[in-house]
Amino acid sequence: MDYQLMYDITPLLLKAAWVTLKISFWSFWLGLIVSSILVATRLSGILILVWLSRVYVSFIRGTPFFVQLLVMYYGTPAFGIELDAYNAGIIAIGFNIGAYMSEAMRGSILAVDHGQNEAARSLGFSGFSTFLYVVLPQAAGLMIRSVGVLTVIMIKSSSLVSIISVVELTYQAQRIIGSTYKPLEVFAVAAVLYLIIIYGVRYIIDRSYDHYTRYLH
Amino acid sequence: MKLNFVPVLSYFDSLLAGLWWTILLAVSAGIISVFGGILIATIINYTSRIVSAPLRFFVWLFMGTPLLLQLWLFYHGWAQLDILLPAMFIGIFGLGFHYASYNADVYRAALETISHGQYEAARSLGFGHLRTLFLIIIPQAMYRSIPQLGNNLIIMVKDTAILSIIGISEMVLAAQYAISVTYRPFEFYITVALIFYAINLILESLLNHYEKKSLIKL
Q1: Among partner residues A67, A76, A159, which is closest to B68 by beta-carbon distance?
Q2: Within a 10 A sphere around the Cβ of A85, how many other Cβ atoms?
Q3: What is the largest CA-CA distance in chain A?
Q4: Which secondary-structure segment (H or E) carries A202?
Q5: How far is CA B180 from CA B4, B19, B174, in A?
Q6: What is the residue extent of each domain of chain A?
Q7: Average pLDDT, chain A
Q8: A126-175, pLDDT tens digit by residue?
Q9: What is the structure's pLDDT at A142?
Q10: CA–CA separation, B49 vs B44, rounded Å?
Q11: How far apart are CA A185 and CA A178, in angstroms?
């Protein structure tokens, strides 16, 4: 093991890890927006919207994220949309994770006991305020875990944007491997950074799950 | 720019050749992940903590780092040790081990749901420890994990696309060759996506079918 090399490449990889975090952060929020729209259309009861949202979710979940990313980056210029690699990566991840999140969110919303709905309606809440003030706060607690698991998976699949040459952790690691030819050392440093990010995020998710569901059990 | 799917038709043969490699990769990595997973889970659950420590560490490591990074490590790492392995081998084992660690997690949960009475009953009927594990406990645990295993398998089939980056000529790489000649990225990638979608639909319906059958049997 070449410890000097490991020490030398750490600042470079730290910078790249920050890019990975940034990509994950923005695509997480994009994913939340996409999934909220998908859940709203799915639960709207309007046949054409329900159908569209189902087709979208099924297609996104049925095709490799890698291919979606390639379509987003290399395919969109055919329609006159020119995206740089960084934005194409974020949009591809966001649209992908949005489809998965929408299923998790819908599951959590449907998991709230129907009696809650009826009780709220009989107390005079309208359909929408029942959803907003009674169902959603309870579902939100349940959502944290399932959406959190997806977020962790998303951080890992964000490594794929290195293929379209976004300089994030995996890209930087691969480039250093290419120039030094010390794969094990580089992998060790990059892996530690990924492990910190991923198990850190998981810790936050578990704590906030415990916090938000403390009245549910 | 107008879409033109004619080049896709003329290169459809090479896409289909790529599809065979995709299927070959998926089947062999799938076998490794299913049986590797049960092996890891059994060792972790039924041996001492010291014996299973390295395995637990590797499961933790594999689940906490991206597949792509692991593939780069295996691809370049063996060469660093002066061991030259074909990319196909690295691809199959890299993908297989990655999902074996996910499956091990599934199996471990399933093994814990098998009631201890099963073990005691088998031992009292004269089965040895290993025979009880491999003939009584593990088959039941594997049966119970079919839905989860199926999900992991479907995810794994989609991840075979990533193996194109280490030069395995599966569907995506076949498409990339064709794109470099015809310069029709959108058409080719969408076609590849649709083929994957078709595979996925078939796998999903198979999984649903077997899930129902396995539920009847339990």
Answers
A1: A159
A2: 17
A3: 70
A4: helix A183-212
A5: 15, 19, 10
A6: 3-212
A7: 92
A8: 888 998 898 888 888 888 989 999 999 999 999 999 999 999 999 999 99
A9: 85
A10: 7
A11: 12
Yes or no, beta carbons of A62 and B186 under 8 Å apart: no
The CA distance from B1 to the nearest CA of chain A, in Å, is 6
What average pLDDT does chain B have? 91
Amino acid identity of B191?
A: T
Question: Does residue B55 sit within a domain?
Answer: yes
Please give the pLDDT value at position B217: 63
**CATH number of the domain bearing residue B122:** 1.10.3720.10
Residue A75's closest chain B neighbor by CA? Answer: B186
| Predicted pLDDT of residue A67 | 95
CATH number of A3-212: 1.10.3720.10
Does B69 contact A at CB distance below 8 Å? yes
Q: What is the ipTM of this complex?
A: 0.89
Start-to-end Cα distance in chain A = 50
Residue B19 scores a pLDDT above 90 = yes
In a domain, B176, yes or no: yes
Count of domains in chain B?
1
The span from the CA of B133 to the CA of B119, in Å, is 8
pLDDT of residue A59 exceeding 90: yes
Task: Give residue B34's domain range.
Answer: 6-217
Q: Which of residues 150-169 of A touch B (CB under 8 A)?
A: 156-160, 162-163, 169
Segment A72-76 mean pLDDT: 91
Q: Evaluate whether residue B135 is within a structural domain.
A: yes
In a domain, B1, yes or no: no
How is residue A53 written in tokens?
């949202």
Decide if B101 contacts B59 (C-beta within 8 A): yes
- Identify residue B96 by its one-letter amino acid code: G
pTM of the model: 0.89
Question: Can you give the pLDDT at residue B195?
Answer: 95
Distances (CA, A) of B57 to A37, B62, B63: 40, 9, 10
Interface check for A133 against chain B (CB to CB < 8 A): the answer is no
